Each structure stands twice: as C-alpha cells, then as structure tokens.
Amino acid sequence: MNRPALVPRLVGVAALCTFAACQGADPPGAATTTSIASAPSSAPTLTAPAAPRSAAPSDACSAQQALDQIDTRVAVPLVPMMANHQLRDMRDHLLAVQEIVVAASTDDFAGVERAAVRIGFSEQMGQTCAHMGAGAAGFTELAVAFHHTADTITAAARQRDRTAVLQALGTTLQTCTGCHAAFRQSVVDEATWTRLTSMLSPTEHMPRQ
Prior knowledge:
The chain is built from eight helices and four strands, in the order H-E-E-H-E-H-H-H-H-H-E-H. By secondary structure, it is mainly alpha-helical.
C-alpha cells in the first residue's frame, strides 16, 4: 500500500472509533506499520505518524458516568439531533431575555413584546415540549409552564408598564431556573430513546421555533 492511500484509511478507522464511543473499544496496541511491498527487505518501514494523545472512548464514558452519578437531576433522554435542537432553542430563549431587559431599560415596549412573543406559548411550542419530555415525567409540564408564564411579559408590555414587565420577567426566569434545577439532558441512541419513550425516534430535523 502506498502512503497516500494510507491516509484515507486511517481517517476512516478514526471515524468508526468515534462512532463506537461508549460501546467499548479495543485495548491499545503497538503502533501500526506499513511496508512498501516492492521494497527490498532491507528498506526502511514507513510508520504512520502518531496521533496526539486524546481520551479513549472508554475514558470518556467513565467520565460521563462519573458526572451522571454526581448530577442527581432527572435525566431527559434525547437523541443527538433532539438534544442539539433543544440547546439551540434555549440559547434563543436566553437571547430573547437579553432583548427584553435592554428594551425595558428604555421603555421600548414594542421591543419587549417582540422578544417576549418568541418565548411565549404556541401549539407548536407545546408539541415540541411534549416530544422533548416524552422520556421524563414532569418535564413537559414545567416546559409548558415556562412558555405560558412568558406570555405575562407580553401582556405587561402591552400595558406599557415597566415594573410589571420586570416582575413578569422575574417570574418567567424562576420557572426557567426551576426546570434546569430539576432536569438535565441525557443523550442516548435511537434504540434507547424508543425503549424509554415507546415512540419511534425522529428521523428528520425538527422545525425551529
């Protein structure tokens, strides 16, 4: 095998090892060597460059298991696509809160309302919460309560009442922090999610709210 052909094979092996993380890994062995077939026996042997030392899949799994034992919050099982979707939405929720604070500081009630609507309740939002919380009792109820509480910010903004806006925002953030205090993400494979939820795993990207 020539040296250029060795590179894509090494990349493919690395990708397979990454995919198999937490599923068990072969024990480390000696460095892989590849000889040029046409070279005489006295010719030097080409050795693949050693990759930088990184945590083995088993090490990463052990670390995750240790964290799971320390973090006693209720696990919310999610396949990777769902977990990414949820984190993206929560970052947008945080951005909306920032926009509410900035707008309220200048009595920009239209700005408060625009930002608050993004985290308010809708039927689609409710369905997303139910889907995300299918494997964790109580999660959906807290998530829906957060969005309903955010609607009170919109109502206060329409009254052009800065004090009421800030009070509603404080109550909304209380439901938000309360949910985070009770639950945590747990990324699982599709088979595990189906077993825990009795639902087929989603195969397409969920629409962004």
